[in-house]
Amino acid sequence: MPNIQTKRLELIEFPTSYQEYNYEYIGTSSRGEKLLFTTHKGKSFFLQIIQREADFLIKGDKLSRVSPVSITQNALDGFSKLHNLELTFSNIQSKPENNRLKDDLGVLKNAYHFTKDFNYDKEIWIEVGFGSGRHLLHQASENPHIQFIGLEIHRPSIEQVIKQSKLQNLDNIIISDFDARVFMQLINSNSVGKIFVHFPVPWDKKPHRRVISKAFITESLRLLKMDGTLELRTDSEKYFAYSFETLQEFDKYDIQIRKNHDLPVSSKYEDRWKKQEKNIYDIILTNQELSADKTTTDFLTFDKNVNFSGVKKRFSNHIIRGDDFFVHFEDIYEIDANSGIIKLSLGAYEKCEHKYLLFKDNKIQYFPSVLLPIEQNFKSHQKIKEFLYV
Ligand SMILES: C[S@@+](CC[C@H](N)C(=O)[O-])C[C@H]1O[C@@H](n2cnc3c(N)ncnc32)[C@H](O)[C@@H]1O
Fold it and tell me: In the chain, where are the structural domains located?
């Protein structure tokens, strides 16, 4: 993170600005850590000001960071100029931005894209954990009329596949780095023709981390079209048996099982297992029922304000845990008697979100972005409201 360090700092009055950077207000925690709300051409973020034993560290805040990184660097530079700082360290004049994906960012979509901008005109096929991407790229080139969504959490694999899809002129793949176990909740019912889960990590010692679960199958069946399929391919006999057993809890589907069946393309992992002469199992689940539409796509908001000083009195660092969700109230920052900031982590255990809650101008809102409308977030949001509106 870009940062500057100085021995002396006397804060000037806010709001103030330097060139196109606006420094609006400061929130201060009980430990004296400060968050400076900063804006630049419609983008908002915090700078963190930390007083250490012998000096001050001023840096970009990770949770609200904006892209490109030069915005944070320039904001720190403006801050330094406004305060006439004598810097003892600075990394803000560092090299030009290293953004290897810059040209290709259009293909990598964040989860919010799938809640509002996503186009459902074409049939969708989803590949979960595409790894080296051989299967995804092959399917996309064979089926240009299909919109592919590739889900992968391993950044180098994502970059490699984006590069390959560009080289092959494939314009029917979009990629998300969101955890597949939660991602499915963002997609409309009855819109997907095929879901591929090829060689998922077996997680024999931590089964709760497996992609295949009752919740994942429920969501898959909801978003599959009539006769749409969920294809699991694995070299792990244990994973195969576990998945088969999990499927027994469902009805309204047809199931086909295959052993050592060759596909037109062999993935990197598949090649490895074949060399070791391992068996390869397929379970193909065909959906035979239309599902109801998703209940809501509304974002989670607050419809009434609260007295911030009352919230501050009640605040303590604590965690509320539910069966599949949690809320961690981490820290609180006071701006003035009526406004402030709470730092939170919340949502699904396997895909938690980090947010600030801004209490400002008689409104409460999540920052730097709204909460995704997924079930566990609804539950966390409910707990936050219970805490705020006692
Ligand atoms: C064993 S590799 C298989 C890759 C590829 N399907 C193949 O056959 O070569 C499993 C992949 O799933 C990805 N993965 C694991 N958990 C995931 C999750 N919850 N959501 C999305 N991808 C995940 C991993 O990063 C890894 O690339």
Answer: 3-90, 104-287, 308-388
Ligand 1 pocket, mutate which of 152, 210, 231, 270 (most atoms under 8 A from CB): 152
Decide which of 3.40.50.720, 3.40.920.10, 3.30.70.1450, 3.40.50.150 is the CATH code for 104-287.
3.40.50.150
Expressed in angstroms and rounded, the spacing between residue 150 Cα and the centre of ligand 1 is 10
Q: Are 239 and 202 in contact (CB under 8 A)?
A: yes
**Which residues have a Cβ under 8 Å from the Cβ of 239 and sit 6 or more positions away?**
200, 202, 204, 210, 212
- Considering the entire predicted model, what is its pTM? 0.79
Say if ligand 1 is within 6 A of residue 363 CB: no
Residue bearing the CA closest to ligand 1, atom 10: 200
**How far apart are alpha carbons 239 and 78 in whole angstroms?**
55
Q: What is the pLDDT of residues 7-60, one digit of tens each?
A: 999 999 999 999 999 999 999 999 999 999 999 999 999 999 999 999 999 999
Q: Give dist(CA 354, CA 357) in Å, integer.
A: 10
User: In the chain, what percentage of residues exceed pLDDT 90?
Assistant: 79
Q: For 33-37, 190-194, 371-375, 384-388, which range has the lowest pLDDT when averaged over its residues?
A: 371-375
- Whether residue 40 contacts residue 47, with contact meaning beta carbons closer than 8 Å, is answered with no
Q: Please give the distance, rounded to the nearest whole angstrom, from the Cα atom of residue 224 to the centre of ligand 1.
A: 21
The total number of residues shown for the chain amounts to 390
